[in-house]
Amino acid sequence: MIYYYLTIYPMEALVASQLEPKKFASYMALGSRKGSAEQLAFMTVTPDCSNSFDWKHAIEHCKPHPDGKLKNSVYLSIYRVLEHIPLEALGTCYLVTKDGLSLPIEKMDYAKCGNSEPFSLYQEICPVSPLTISSLKPVEFAEYIINGSGKISLPAIIFADIGIIDFDDMENSGNVGGFYDHNTEHLKECISEIQERDGKKTKIVDRSYASRFSYQVIGKGIFAARENEIVYYPMPGREELKKIDYDWGRSALIF
Amino acid sequence: MFGFISIAVIAALGFAAFNYFAVKKMDNGNEQMIEIAGAIEDGSKAFIRYEYKIIAIVAFAIAILLSLVVSWHTAVTFILGAVMSASAGWIGMKIATLANVRVTNTAKETRSIGATLKVAFRGGSVMGLCVGGFALLGLGIIYFVFGKVLGQTSPEQLQIHTNWLGIADIPFTMTVSGYALGCSIIAMFNRVGGGIYTKAADMGADLVGKTEAGIPEDDPRNPATIADNVGDNVGDVAGLGADLLESFVGAIISSVVLAAYMFYTGNKIGSPLDSELVVKLIYFPVLFASIGLISSIIGVFTLIARKVSAHPHRELNIATWVSASLTLILTGIFTWYYFKGSDVAQAGFKAGVFSPWIAAIMGIVSGIIIGQLAEYYTSYDFKPTGKIAEASCEGTALTITQGLAAGMTSVFAPVVMLAVAIIAANAVAGLYGVAMAAVGMLSFVAATVSVDTYGPIADNAGGISEMAKLDPEVREITDKLDSVGNTTAAIGKGFAIGSAALAALSLFASFLYAQKGANIDEGFSLVLNMINTMTLAGALVGAALPYLFSGILIEAVAKAARSMVQEVRRQFKEMPGILTGEEKPDYKTCIEISTKGSIREMVLPALISVSMPLICGFIFGADFVGGLLIGTTLSSIMLALFTANSGGAWDNAKKYVEQGHYGGKGSDIHKAAVVGDTVGDPLKDTVGPSLDILIKIMAVVSLISVSIFGKYNLFSIFGW
To answer: How far, CA to CA in Å, does B205 sit from each of A177, B462, B564, B595?
Structure first.
């Protein structure tokens, strides 16, 4: 059996593998021999969902090794992958910690996303990765990025809603990791600008924040959008996560 | 009198046995839990066996030397002390490795903090009661055999005797000192060896597992995690127990030695003490400690026998306070009854029959205050540790700087407290009062060790619940109990340092008496002449010695930790299936590395502590050793307080961040706090506790050998 995965973080790629998702997650994070420890996220993809990829190549090359071991990975494409995959072909999203544990999140109807705050912080994950502050709700933000009316436009996007902490009480920040370690003054200024400047709907806070992205700061969840379409991967809350997979929560430094 | 001591000993050891079997018969959980606990138990046993083999060789050699140079009874009591201390350590380690998994299972079965706390405390109480029970059992035997049967406590034998080498001493002082030395030897090996073991394993597990591979604490994929849990048992249970047993014995024997020399000196300088009063003074500390032991049994019982709340810290405090309060009341009544009708003014008692009791209370009160000060300086509920967490926002360098500041500042108040206790105790009952202050501080040692031992048991239980992947609710219970254990450990360390300081100072006074020996005459006054160049030079060397000793220990931990780090890296590299959970780590190799590393590395510091007074004594003479002792004692007290408190503060600053402050886990602030904690680890768990032993072992060795090197040393032989 061949599985297809769209890795969305830290690198955009379509990968075929004989490993089932949890094993693929572990392989990608830890490697088979190199001893790496890398945080990553990926989504399962329905095969033959697009003509843009050489699915045959996967079938030809994704075969067990002579010793019977399963083929770990066959890269089908890197760069501009997401834009060629229809949203309905995206399956479960896996958030993988650097020690190889993975948390599967099923997609959900966007309507269940709930009300938005006056402004949101979005970590764009794929295909580009700036940190953006916006007064738009996720669906509006996705539309704003995708519709092509502005200079900045993308055919598809995956982004995460980031939980915003009280910057005046950093001592009680909660376990948010290194996300807010630097330049919070600038972030505060950006928030003020969005709130106070009429017509200003989004502002890029930082172009390279993705390196500090961690699962600890995901707020409502992760969104994948194309033109007029959006799907929502809800991030479980602390109590729910405790019940679902406490060990993943510990590895993700949430507990 | 002996009946009373026997009752206390039988009650303590009987209650310990009852608790031991009560814990043992509890269900030890599922297969996985049993397997993990079995690995921890095997590792702990292997270490203790290995360590005790080395100690047996050293102890045998010392015993032969003592029998040849001092007396056969000193050699016998030395062996007795070593056996008593080793037994307490062994039983404590054994119960800790039995209780850990049963604590986890109780949390799993009951989901009740109170019920789980009781099991952990019951386990800890075995060690506490054994420390009190075995210490007094040995002393009881000595008092009976050597004191009563051989008549060493009779006024006729409380005189200077000279042996075949021409060495002069009061026989009973050497008999009890031999016992103290036996306890000290075990304490030194257990504390130093255990301290190196526990930190090497801990640092190895953290530096590679947590930092490099990103796996959480106590994750079964970490090859060093079992060794880390073994370290808790050999360092924090066996090591701590042997340490406090030694302090307890040291405090008692220093009062006894002082009483004997007071009697002898009084006769020589023409103001003789009533012989009946002297015998009372010699027996009083043991009886006082027996009452403390009985009070501790009641204190421990109050926690075990009733339904306890979900507030572990409060419950543990109640057990300690009941023990302390009962000790206070019962010893007060006993002191009045015991000394009524005696002319205690002869002994320099200024507050009547209650004088030694008041002095002991000074010890109890100062011990409690020092413990509370330790909590103040190391708990994140208070400013000093909070400031370290806050400083971490500005980077690692400031974490270290702020921690150093907190550690250094923390030295002053406890030392002032000790000074106040010494002055007050001396004011009411002279130097005997100072020794009684140490006895008072340690009189309810069974209760304090029970509370202290509860900590590592709860820590192990948390490790087992993580490794066995039990429900989050279970892990939260064991985590909560573990975090309370960290606080009790900090308080316990303050207590250990304070009591060690008082015991060492009392032993030092005994040393000064013993130094004079038969030369005491009418003009005698107990003076350490700091203008004497030999004394001054000795004090300088002595003050520097704890730094040398600490440096060697830190290097030993670093060396053993490096081996562990390399091994964990090797396993991750050569066995990639470990991280994916397809392969089991090789826990045994990590345990072996820690065991061999710590045994190898503990020899040099242990030898320094025993041999330094002897080498200095045989070269420079008794005056130099007097200076050496005072220099080492003062310097060690400061350094021990500094290392224990700075390490504790760094540890808790990290914990505070991990609770979701300043970004919490994974933040740069957390990384800075982790560095602080790692730097502080060998300071608080290896150096600090080992310094407690250093000052006591040097004092006891000097006390035993002063009459030898006072007579035979290079400087006097060559007439320099």
So the answer is: 21, 16, 8, 15
Residue A237 in this model has a pLDDT that exceeds 90: yes
Count of domains observed in chain A: 2
| pLDDT tens for each residue of B642-671 | 999 999 999 999 999 999 999 999 999 999
Q: Per the CB < 8 Å rule, is A37 touching B472?
A: no
% of chain A exceeding 90 in pLDDT: 75
What separation in angstroms does the CA of B172 have from each of B67, B253, B279, B426, B625? 15, 10, 12, 24, 22
Q: Kindly state whether B391 is in contact with chain A, defined as any CB-CB distance less than 8 angstroms.
A: no
pLDDT digits (tens, 9 = 90+) for B426-442: 999 999 999 999 999 99
Same domain, A12 and A121: no
| Contact: A251, B393; criterion CB under 8 Å | no
Per the CB < 8 A criterion, the answer to whether B291 and B440 are in contact is: no
Say whether both A237 and A115 belong to one domain.
Answer: yes
Cβ–Cβ below 8 Å for B213 and A253: no
Q: Specify whether A38 is located in the same domain as A130.
A: no
- ipTM for the whole complex: 0.89
- A7: amino acid identity, one letter: T
Q: Are residues A26 and A75 in the same domain?
A: yes
Rounded to an integer, what distance in angstroms lies between the CA atom of residue A83 and that of residue A49?
Answer: 12
Give counts: helices (H), strands (E), chain A: 5, 12
Lowest model confidence (mean pLDDT) among A124-138, A206-220, B53-67, B282-296? A206-220
- The reply to whether residue B667 touches residue A172, judged by beta carbons under 8 angstroms, is no
Distance in Å, alpha carbon of B460 to nearest chain A alpha carbon: 18
The SS3 assignment for B256 reads: helix
Residues of A in contact with B393 (CB under 8 A): 170
For the stretch A182-215, pLDDT in tens is: 788 899 999 999 988 888 889 999 887 777 889 9
pTM for this structure? 0.91
Question: A99 vs B661: CB contact, 8 Å cut-off?
Answer: no
Q: Tell me the shortest Cα–Cα distance from A216 to chain B, in angstroms.
A: 9
With a CB cutoff of 8 Å and minimum separation 6, the contacts of A160 are: A122, A123, A125, A213, A218, A219, A221, A222, A223, A235
* Number of C-beta neighbours around residue B72 at 10 A: 12
- Calculate how close chain B gets to A255, using CA atoms only, in Å: 9
Quick count: other Cβ atoms within 10 Å of Cβ A3?
19
Of the candidates B326, B307, B256, B261, the one whose C-alpha atom is nearest the C-alpha of residue B286 is B256
The range of the structural domain enclosing residue A188 comes to 110-251
Residues A102 and A55 grouped into a single domain: yes
R_g over Cα of chain A: 19
The answer to whether residues A148 and A219 belong to one domain is: yes
Final residue before a domain boundary, out of A106, A121, A150: A106
Rounded to the nearest 10°, the torsion over CA B628, B629, B632, B638 is -140
Angle between helices B396-442 and B668-682 (to 10 degrees): 40
H or E element: which one contains A203?
A: strand A202-206
